Amino acid sequence: MSPSELVEEIREICRENTDPAIVAKYSKYFQDGYDAYGLKLEQIEETVMEILDAGAGYKLIQQTCRILVRSPKYEETSFAILLTKAFEKDFSSKTIHELEFWFTFGITNWAHADVISTELIFPLFQNNMIGLKELEDWKSASNKFQRRAVAVGLIKPMKANKEISPYLDFLSALMLDKEKEVQQGLGWFLGEAWKVNESITEEFLMKWKNKSPGFIFQSATENMNEEETKRFRIEKYQISSKK
Predict the structure, then answer these.
(1) What letter does residue 73 receive in the DSSP assignment?
(2) In the 8-state DSSP scheme, what is residue 212?
(3) What's the domain range around 161?
(4) What is the pTM of this model?
């Protein structure tokens, strides 16, 4: 089977299982639009298992996923993520470049960016296939979801290492980012960093408190109590989110 044939097989299954009610249910979570067939996660997972059981190899899956991630349809990128995750044992230092391709030609929502960050990027760190330097160019990527993936992708490595300073230094370049999706990702990271080391994280937050967009701090402090949150309230708002 060729990549194009496998893609068509996947799309046929999607068309056969279209459910407008599911599309309507999840549309509210995607402000930039939600172009989907309306499949249940269980249907996608079942199809992935059938593809794998049929003997699809990693090379075929890689080529297929390059086609799938270009599609505007939500589930097609979901298929790409799950199929790739199934071959985690075949990941290498080159895998990060494959993910870069995905962000260059696809990945247009926060949900896919976050799953890629936690399920595909983290194993690369975990197995010492990449380090911070491999994500350096991602911080200035044109795709805002790729920049978000930098912050979200470092949450698990940071929690595993318990050493947060290198990660905070690395993320400083994103603290003035004007995109709300990136700010939310940074806030998520900082909230998790605070759980690991309060003093170092608080020092970092105080440093940026009157320079960075307020949404970062809103996200970072949402699990803190009222007194703790007050300390990071912005005194002079200098940068607003991009409309």
Answers:
(1) -
(2) S
(3) 113-243
(4) 0.91
